[in-house]
Structures are given as C-alpha cells and as structure tokens.
Amino acid sequence: xxxxxxxxxxxxxxxxxxxxxxxxxxxxxxxxxxxxxxxxxxxxxxxxxxxxxxxxxxxxxxxxxxxxxxxxxxxxxxxxxxxxxxxxxxxxxxxxxxxxxxxxxxxxxxxxxxxxxxxxxxxxxxxxxxxxxxxxxxxxxxxxxxxxxxxxxxxxxxxxxxxxxxxxxxxxxxxxxxxxxxxxxxxxxxxxxxxxxxxxxxxxxxxxxxxxxxxxxxxxxxxxxxxxxxxxxxxxxxxxxxxxxxxxxxxxxxxxxxxxxxxxxxxxxxxxxxxxxxxxxxxxxxxxxxxxxxxxxxxxxxxxxxxxx
Length: 309
Prior knowledge:
- The termini are far apart.
- The strands form two sheets. The protein has a nine-stranded mixed β-sheet, sandwiched between helices. Strands 9-10 form a two-stranded antiparallel sheet.
- By secondary structure, it is α/β, with parallel strands linked by helices.
- It has nine helices and eleven strands.
- Helices cover about 30% and strands about 20% of the residues.
C-alpha cells in the first residue's frame, strides 16, 4: 500500500521566509489523525529508532550511539535490508520474518513502515515510545524525494499510530562522497540531540509535538570533509518540484536502461530545497493523512526558534 505524504499546506500558503507568518485559522482547525500524543515523562525519552538503509547502516548506528550517550533509552527496530525509496509502503503478507540479533536491536524483513508497526505492536507493547526517530540516512529527503522516502515513511507510520516522529536526513541536493556524508552525520546527530532536548524541555510533561505533527529534518553536508557547521536553521515546507528526473534508454531488446538526472529548478522561497542549498538545516512540519489541513508551521517555528547548528 502506497500513501502519498501530504504537504504542509499552511507553509505553502505562507510562501514566506523561514520563521515568519501565521497559520490561517481555517486550516489550523482541521483535525489531525491518530490519538493524542502521550505526555512526555521527566528525564530521558524512550525512543524507537528506525531507518530505510537497514538496521546495521552507519547512520542508524551513529544515531543509536549519540542518542544513547545523551541519556535516552533507545531501541532499534529497522529493516533487515536496504529499503531506500520504499516510501510509506507496508506489507500485507500473512507472515513477516523478524530477527533479534543483539540487545536493543530488532531487524524486520520488511519496509520502514513494517518495522515501526512491529515495534509499536510488539517491542513497545503496552507502552508506546515517547518518540520515533527515523534516520539518519544518506542523501536529502526534500521536495518530491520526501514523498517517496522510506526514512520519511517510517516517521509517517509512527504519526499514523499517534506517536510523535522525526525523520533525519543528511545530504545536499547532489550526492556527496559517501565518506563525506558519514562525517556529516555527526553534525546531523549533534543537532538532533539538541532538537530533542529542546522539544522535551518545552513540552513540560505535555506532548513533544502537536497532535498529528512530525518533523522532516534535512541537514546539509557542509565543508569538504562534511564536518562543517550549518549556516542556520529554517522552518520550511516541502518544495513543489520533483528534483530528480528519470532517464530511459531503449536497449533494443525489450528492456530499457534506467538512469536518474538531477533536475534542479529555482526553489520556492522558504522551501526545504532553498534552505539546504544555502547550507541551512531545513525543518519541515508534516502530517500523515490525506486531508488538506496543515501540519502546524507556526507552532513548529516557535518550538525551534533560537536553535543553532
């Protein structure tokens, strides 16, 4: 089952610079999907960590180490194999294979959505995690890439179940050297730790995020070695462009060779693409349903105001 992720409409209506504007009252009144988020306990959070690159990928292992070092109780429930591009797909077979290779790690032979569903139902049975974090992964999940991203899909599965979620991605609009990207995952996760700490402190025993709202965080690769500091933090919306274009070549034998080209157009003002190109961390509020109502852009902007890379 493939579900298209809804764009944050309020942000699209704003079309304004990051951290500016207000949400139209009519849009803000649209109900969010899922049950109300549970109050956040004082102290460390219980985090379900997933991704789309696989349970043993560098990004999720670094995320596990950093979030654990920050004091959080982290459990990996992620795909057994690379599921990049799986989007919000979930399996509908009669069975699913699950491995438990080490403490605090579960590997699900399915999509990020399957992994989150299994984690919420079985690993966290009876008591949902305080937060689902998906990532960090190689490459950006901006513009239309976010719609088809398994990283974002894992976060959407959590939102469908009423659990607050953050999708983390590391990369610019072009693919850097893999080693550089791994280096850049450090700054990405440093920022993620600060962001989660900010959300926890501001929640004051309430929900981490507004009902039905998740965050799609895209951290740029900065510097030749990927270890540079981002130019700032921007509340953004999903840019309305495809970004990538499929290129087909007829092999003459009934098959076609498939390539992909970057088709970068002028980004919309205030969009995730504009922010990442400028070397800024893009944070786009997102929701999980088909309604035209927005994830709350203004509330998200207030939550992250003053954060620095």
